[in-house]
Amino acid sequence: MPIPGCIAGRRCHAAAIAAVVICSTIFTGPNLAPAAAPSPSVPAPQLDWRPCVKGSQFDCATAKVPLDYLNPGGRTIELAVVKRKATGPGRRIGTLFFNPGGPGGPGTVQMPQNYEAFPREVRERFDIVSWDPRGIGNSTAVNCFETPEEADAWGASKPAGGFPVGEKERKTWIAAYKDLARRCQQRDPELLRHVSTADTARDLDQLRQAVGDPQLTYLGSSYGTTLGSTYANLFPGKVRAMTLDSNTDPQAWTNHASNEDPRLTTFLRMGADRGAAAILDKFLALCGSTTARCAFSAGSPKATRDKFDQLLRRLREHPVGAWTYGRTASDTVSSLYIVHPGWTDLAGRLQNLWQGRVPEPSPPPPAPPVPNPNPYTGDEQAGAVFCGDSPNPRDPGAYHALEEAGAIRAGDAGRFWTWAAEGCADWPAVAANRYRGPWNKPTAHPVLVVGTTYDPATPYSGSQAMAKELANARLLTNSGYGHTALINPSSCVNEYESRYFIDGTLPPAGATCEQDTPPFPAPKPHGGVTTGGGAMADVVS
Questions:
Q1: Given pLDDT bands bounded at 50, 70 and 90, which one contains residue 160?
Q2: Residue 236 backbone class (left: φ over 0; alpha: ψ -120 to 50; beta: rest)
Q3: Residue 472 to residue 449: CA distance in whole angstroms
Q4: pTM for this model (two decimals)
Q5: What is the C-alpha to C-alpha distance for residues 259 and 189, in angstroms, rounded to an integer?
Q6: Nearest 5°: phi and psi at 348?
Q7: N- to C-terminal Cα separation, the chain
Q8: Looking at residue 38, what is its pLDDT?
Q9: Of 24, 195, 200, 518, which is the most exposed, with the fewest CB atoms less than 10 Å away?
Q10: What is the C-alpha to C-alpha distance for residues 358 and 333, in angstroms, rounded to an integer?
Q11: How far apart are CA 141 and CA 195, in angstroms?
């Protein structure tokens, strides 16, 4: 769902990822909104495509859409859109729309950064289009601060780690997010109520019409699977081909459409904590068994696990510079999203901390050739979508007990994923027009669901659940590690996706793929991804 990708809604280091689950500090209002209702007919926006910047291979446009589809004659908002034209002359099929996840992922930045990761045949046959969803980035955005300085001051007012440690930090954290909620309510309360997944699904259908496609071809990663499944049930007859990569469980997302105050946070319902704990255990085991290729190895899986536990205990009492226990635990979970080079870089940072050295900062990702490659993406943007859509406990005081329970079942990952949703406790708005099911409306064509077996954010069980919830879906299992197959490449997955997008051919039932390159691989004389696009290491989450 930035998540990390991003720690507490901030920009990630260069090895973090583009397709992510909900940004780590995403906050939910009371369950008072009705299910999403049909919207009146709205004319498709006009897209005036122009090169994003001089010499760019990407084109940019701005789409105007209604803030409220139930009142299309009222206020309008703008969506920033980006396109890369199909590279195979005379072979173009149509447009593939891409959502990189989040919520909060700015597609105008992340699609250009991830473009080479799309399968080669898909790039040849489709224009690839993405956009900053409403409320996000370069589109009409949620921004609860008058100036960048105000935003920076707010960020400095809360604990620097990815989650609070100790009573003092918990009080500071809760007060900071309560203050953020107050600021957001004062700035633009109307916008806060109209940035739901259902609103964005309607925007997506407007964009589909604007490019002239009779049906939608779509790839959604992480939170993008929530968006895709929502579109598939709002517009089932418009689905041409839809791949959902690293899935949220729609029942966990909506808390089974219950109007009761939820007992668990969204991420704990999803099992993100257990998924992160499982992949962390694999990271330490593989690191321990590949001594020469993992800087943090202690010579065996058990010794490496013990070394990690000892390091985090030590950091609780003796931080290394700004690297506290909370920051290190959060960085660890975030860095498991992308295997190459994320795992190797993580091992190096952990070893530096073990030796008492402050890790070197990762270089920033290269700026894509778009007008504003570094838009403001504060915590409140992801929070406005997440908290308005997905129920979370409304009592800030409940989160410490949830954290302790999470730590029992998932260790440090349980603490990280518990606090990722606390900002929702005081969030001031609920989406005016949420979609909460049903999820089984028959689509015009079947949906391809891709799930990775060890995922630190959207566990494999979420992809299994998505495939069962949808009326007509095929599950493709990606046996490997990391968050999304798109940025942890598998030639096998790419080949199946290419065939599906081009001619609708699904993988055989029960099909399983493997990643091209395992973690901490032995050196080879030559190699690389032979088909498809390859991995993207430097991306924004």
A1: confident
A2: alpha
A3: 10
A4: 0.91
A5: 22
A6: -65, -40
A7: 10
A8: 53
A9: 518
A10: 19
A11: 9
Hey, what are 93's tokens? 């099929």
> What value, to the nearest 5°, has the Cα angle with vertex 292 and ends 291 and 295?
75
Amino acid at 471: A
What does the pLDDT read at residue 89?
A: 80
Residue 237 CB coordination number (10 Å): 10
Percent of the chain with pLDDT over 90: 86
Packing angle, helices 325-335 and 272-289, rounded to 10: 80
The answer to whether 283 and 480 have CB atoms below 8 angstroms apart is no
Q: Which of 270, 292, 268, 205 is nearest to 408 (CA)?
A: 268
Quote the pLDDT of residue 229.
98
Per-residue pLDDT for 21 more than 90?
no
- Give DSSP secondary structure letters for 241-279: EEEEESPPPHHHHHGGG--SPPSS-HHHHHTHHHHHHHH
In 382-426 the beta strands, taken as DSSP E runs, fall at none
Q: For residue 6, which phi and psi values (nearest 5 degrees)?
A: -110, 145
- In degrees, rounded to 5, the angle at the alpha carbon of residue 221 between the alpha carbons of residues 216 and 222 is 130
Q: Distance (Å, rounded) from C-alpha 224 to C-alpha 380?
A: 18
Q: Give the model confidence (pLDDT) of 264-281 as tens digits.
A: 999 999 999 999 999 999
Question: Residue 91 CB: number of other CB atoms within 10 A?
Answer: 12
The CA distance from 189 to 203, in Å, is 20
Q: Residue written as tokens 């953020």?
A: 180
**How many C-beta neighbours within 10 Å does residue 518 have?**
14
